[in-house]
Amino acid sequence: MESLKYKVIKSKSQYKSYCKILEELVDIGSKSSGIKEEIELLTVLIEKWDEDHNTFMELDPIELLQSLMQEHGLNATALAGILDVSKGYLSDILHYKKGLSKDVIRVLAGHFKVSQEAFNRPYELDQPATNKKKVNNLAA
Question: Could you give the 3-state DSSP secondary structure of residue 114?
Fold first, then answer.
């Protein structure tokens, strides 16, 4: 009996390995049915692992975004390009100064292959400094 090329994911290292293989296959962009089936199978296996080991809802949307950026090796500049927003706007999001827009949530969910609900949850934004504090800084 022939050994299966891919098996149900049972460890984080196997998960990471399959994710890397999937990214490589997608980057190749082959139109052959064998590659397409391999991509589909890996996607199903990875999604099943994600579903069973989902810790996304324990993180607020910005912590989740930062975690996904790290996991995918993305810096803020690269993500700003993906989202088609300025680096300053993304910086404000990552520093809790601005909320996530519907458009940004849609693109993030599509890019990272997670549900929009993972990003479309309430979280606290930092309050801007009061005018009194600014006045005190100017007077000093």
Answer: coil
Residues 42-66: tens digit of each pLDDT: 989 988 887 777 666 678 999 999 9
Are 70 and 94 in the same domain? yes
Q: Over the stretch 82-115, which tens digit does the pLDDT of each residue have?
A: 999 999 999 999 999 999 999 999 999 999 988 8
Q: Taking the CA atoms of 40, 41, 42 and 48 in sequence, report the sign of the dihedral they define.
A: positive
Which element (helix H / strand E) includes 105?
A: helix 102-112
Query: What pTM, to 2 d.p., does this model score?
Result: 0.56
Please choose, from the candidates 126, 127, 137, the residue with its C-alpha nearest in 3D space to the C-alpha of residue 60.
126
- Owning domain of residue 84: 56-128
- Does 47 share its domain with 61? no
